Amino acid sequence: MDNYAAAHKPSAQLAKRRILKHHLIPYFGPMQLDAIRQEDVDKLVALLLRGKRSRKTVNNITAVLSSLLRYAVRNKVIGPIDLSFNIKSQDAEIVAVAAEDVDKLVQACTDLRYRAAILLAADAGLRVGEIRALQWPDVNDIAREITVSRSFDRTNALSETKGWERRVLPISERLWPALRALDRTTRYVFGRRNSDLPLRYDGVREEILAIYKRAEVKLPPKPWHSLRHAFCTELARAGVPVNVLKELAGHKSIETTLRYMHTDREAKRGAIDSLRIHPGSHAARSKP
Q1: What are the residue boundaries of the structural domains of the chain, listed by start?
Q2: Which residues partner with 198 through β-bridges?
Q3: DSSP helix/strand/coil, 231
Q4: Residues facing residue 152 across a β-bridge
Q5: pLDDT, tens digit (0-9, with 9 covering 90-100), for 187-200
Q6: Among candidate residues 112, 114, 196, 198, the one with its CA nearest the CA of residue 152
Q7: Per-residue pLDDT for 143 more than 90?
């Protein structure tokens, strides 16, 4: 961990240490790395699944084991390995806040900072960590653009954005006045009042829950991230080219972007409805 994960984000290091402590070390115990066989990996997977762990969680755990073994191979601690670690799993369903519900959330904000934060997610696609890390020098008033290059994780550690992607985003007509209404004497756009300190993750989460409640909007599994999903979904629905959407969202992989091309339920319903046979159609006129 001190060498292999030294350059990883603090939150990623913490997650890996927890997996080692709670899963890998208790399961494998004193077993030598070169003694681990496919059967041992399969038994671990079966044990985790019986413990009601999701398939994604299982893959996260075995990914750490895979990284550990491959790092040992690169350092010539053990010989080459031929093991399978990943199991098939479905992508989590994308839950996006509806456009009318975004309006309700904005109206329910009693704090101008949170109004701007909600629009930074819904109109610019920023992750909550990126919103918390946004500083006033990142806001270009002349070009009406914002530069996203850093993020706070849940441990409140500052690092680069997810995927290490820096991106420049135009400011929407709705977001622009929300940003201009904020106090610019502080360091962070979405920071503490009369202070150069950022807002903590726990406090931001508690407030967004209260805003959903006041707005009477159904609470999604990920209150902040579902606003970002709204941004990506609306762009996909508007027919924005996938390469442009990928750049605006800061996705590292095009596969992630493509998921938003299949989330419009109305479009799916319209496609199915088009299969209906209308009077006068060729199918209706044809005889059995």
Answers
A1: 10-74, 99-218
A2: 191
A3: helix
A4: 158
A5: 999 999 888 889 99
A6: 198
A7: yes
- DSSP-derived 3-state class of residue 249: helix
pTM above 0.85, yes or no: no
What's 188's DSSP letter?
A: B
- Residue 169: phi and psi, rounded to 5, are -125, 135
| Strand pairing class (151-152; 158-159) | antiparallel
Residue 72 phi/psi, 5° resolution? -65, -35
For Cα atoms 139, 141, 145, give the angle at the middle one, nearest 5 degrees: 55
CA-CA distance, 278 to 284, in Å (whole number)?
Answer: 7
> Is residue 280 classed as helix, strand or coil in its secondary structure?
coil
Distance separating alpha carbons of residues 160 and 63, to the nearest angstrom? 22
DSSP label at residue 156? -
- Asked if 84 and 38 count as a contact pair (C-beta separation under 8 A), the reply is yes
CA distances (Å), 163 to each of 10, 121, 149, 167, 250, in order?
14, 17, 11, 11, 8
Strands 151-152 and 167-170, how do they pair? unpaired
Phi and psi torsions of 98, nearest 5°: -65, 150
Q: Could you tell me the fold of the domain covering 99-218?
A: hpI Integrase; Chain A (1.10.443)
Q: Which of 18, 58, 44 is nearest to 36 (CA)?
A: 44
> What angle (nearest 5°) sits at the alpha carbon of residue 76, between those of residues 71 and 77?
80
Q: Is the pLDDT of residue 120 over 80?
A: yes
